[in-house]
């Protein structure tokens, strides 16, 4: 089994593709290196950070703010309305990126698990051969 994957190999083998909402391809500095384990995990996290910085937060209309604020009394009502709007916008904006990051990270961890199982199997085989 091959130990590391480049970014392109990870994307094609996991069938996840590019980051949603981006028109350009993110290429981290170490995208051509065959990484596994923690290094591959960190590379995906770096790509996620780049993706989140590259996507523009959708605008919030005045009508939406008025609708959320309507019916809330006092000064605290506007704070609650603002927090509710921020959560809603963040969900719609970040959820697809988080889903992609989780899928890519799951692929990296599954590959690491497969490597650990293979290494363990090899060690057990070597240990058995010594006693024969």
Automatic annotation (TrEMBL):
Native source species: Helianthus annuus
Region (Disordered): 1-23
Hydrolase among keywords: yes
Bias type Basic and acidic residues, positions: 1-14
The keyword Hydrolase belongs to this UniProt entry's keyword annotation: yes
E.C. number: 3.6.5.5
GO MF annotation list: hydrolase activity
Record keywords, A-Z: Hydrolase
Protein name in the entry: Dynamin GTPase
């Amino acid at each position: 089994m091959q130990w590391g994957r480049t970014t392109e190999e990870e994307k094609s083998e996991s069938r996840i593709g590019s980051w949603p909402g981006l028109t350009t391809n993110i290429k981290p500095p170490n995208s051509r290196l065959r990484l596994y384990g923690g290094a591959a995990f960190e590379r995906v996290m770096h790509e996620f950070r780049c993706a989140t910085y590259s996507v523009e937060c959708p605008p919030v209309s005045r009508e939406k703010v008025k609708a959320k604020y309507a019916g809330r009394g006092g000064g605290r009502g506007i704070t609650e309305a603002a927090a509710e709007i921020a959560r809603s916008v963040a969900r719609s904006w970040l959820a697809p990126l988080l889903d992609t990051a989780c899928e890519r990270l799951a692929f990296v961890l599954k590959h690491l698990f497969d490597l650990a199982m293979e290494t363990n199997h090899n060690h057990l085989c070597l240990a058995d051969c010594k006693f024969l």
